[in-house]
From TrEMBL:
Family note: Belongs to the phosphate/phosphite/phosphonate binding protein family.
Pfam families: Phosphonate-bd
Stored SUPFAM superfamilies: Periplasmic binding protein-like II (SSF53850)
Naturally occurring in which organism (per UniProt): Undibacterium pigrum
Entry keywords, A to Z: Signal
GO biological process: organic phosphonate transport; transmembrane transport
Transmembrane segments: none
Gene3D superfamilies per record: 1.20.58.90, Periplasmic binding protein-like II (3.40.190.10)
Lineage: Bacteria, Pseudomonadati, Pseudomonadota, Betaproteobacteria, Burkholderiales
Protein known as: Phosphonate transport system substrate-binding protein
Presence of the UniProt keyword Signal in the record: yes
Coiled coil spans: none
NCBIfam families the UniProt entry points to: 3A0109s03R, PhnD
Any one annotated GO CC term: ATP-binding cassette (ABC) transporter complex
Signal sequence coordinates: 1-24
Length: 326
């Protein structure tokens, strides 16, 4: 009798697990794909929608684009499960991983098959300033455009390489500082609404393709070291079978199947050649960069006494060691 009970219990558990898996699959009828606001939502929707339509057909799940006025909106959307997967920057991905139960599963590949892009600072082509040093020397007379606080290339990278390493606080150094997305900053420089502004190289490439005359008004005075290409992230609690379908779609898009030529054309509008597998490991250099930026800030803080400074620096060094070992 005990064996019969055990067999019945085992069978019941198996059936329950199967039913749960089926329900999980059946429950996923729609998914929201978050798109960070690197430029206007109109341009982003125009370029991404054909890819999302193809994904809907391939997965048999309605995929809806989710836009927010800033990067934080997409991260919060993932945190509260209003967004299930997204295209984000590396810094935004860290926020999603740490605060929104998410993980990296893929990475974009540029149209030239490279795996990175750059942060840039541009001035108008008629500007008297030839270098970033010129911009910093004359900051008190200049209006400056910076990126979203959760942007890797628009905020974190220039904050470290341009400002922290030169002991400059942009909030107080410039006449005015305005925050905006990459496209808006590019247009602001072109229209002489600001004297200099931060933007990414990939968005500049897209502006060159759509508005070559506008892009021709800019001249770059600074370019960062190479930044790893943007990741794609998903919520960890997505059903495993749905994760597999999503990942297979991205990795194979524009590479195999009868619609390769059309898919490549869609990717070209995004200045991409495709997507490749990735993990949270690609975020390690950005985590280190955030800590290095904080370290430089603390070292330069004359208001901190020696003991307080040592405690804070020891904590940062411990975190850097933990990242290096992970």
């Amino acid at each position: 009798m005990f064996r019969q009970f055990a067999r019945s219990l085992t069978l019941g558990l198996v059936m329950a697990a199967t039913a749960t898996a089926v329900m999980a699959e059946d429950a996923v009828k729609t998914l929201n794909f978050g798109i960070i606001s690197t430029e206007s939502s109109q341009n982003l929707k125009q370029d991404w929608q054909p890819v999302l339509d193809d994904m809907s057909k391939k997965l048999g799940i309605k995929i809806t684009a989710f836009f927010a006025p800033d990067y934080a909106g997409v991260i919060e959307g993932m945190r509260f499960n209003k967004v299930q997967f997204a295209w984000v920057g590396n810094k935004s991905a860290i926020e999603a991983v740490d605060r929104a139960n998410s993980e990296v599963f893929a990475q974009i590949v540029n149209a030239d098959n490279t795996l990175g892009y750059y942060s840039m600072i541009s001035v108008h082509k008629d500007s008297p300033y030839q270098t970033v040093e010129d911009v910093l020397k004359n900051a008190k007379n200049l209006n400056f455009g910076i990126g979203d606080p959760n942007s890797t290339s628009g905020f974190l990278v220039p904050s470290y390489y341009v400002f922290a390493q030169n002991n400059v606080n942009p909030k107080t150094a410039f006449k005015t500082v305005r925050g905006a997305n990459h496209e808006t900053n590019i247009l602001a420089v072109a229209n002489k609404q600001v004297d200099a502004a931060v933007h990414s190289s990939d968005v500049l490439d897209r502006v060159k393709a759509r508005q070559p005359e506008t892009a021709s008004q800019l001249r770059q005075v600074w370019k960062s070291p190479l930044i790893a290409s943007d990741p794609l992230v998903w919520r960890k609690d997505l059903p495993a079978d749905v994760k597999t379908k999503i990942k297979d779609f991205f990795i194979s898009y524009g590479k195999t199947g009868p619609d390769v030529a059309r898919e490549k054309a869609q990717l070209n509008k995004l200045t991409l050649s495709g997507f490749q597998d990735s993990t949270n490991a690609q975020l390690k250099p950005i985590r280190q960069l955030e800590l290095f930026k904080e370290k430089v800030k603390i070292e330069a803080d004359v208001a901190l006494n020696a003991d307080e400074k040592k405690i804070k620096l020891d904590d940062i060094n411990r975190k850097l060691n933990d990242i290096a070992k992970s």
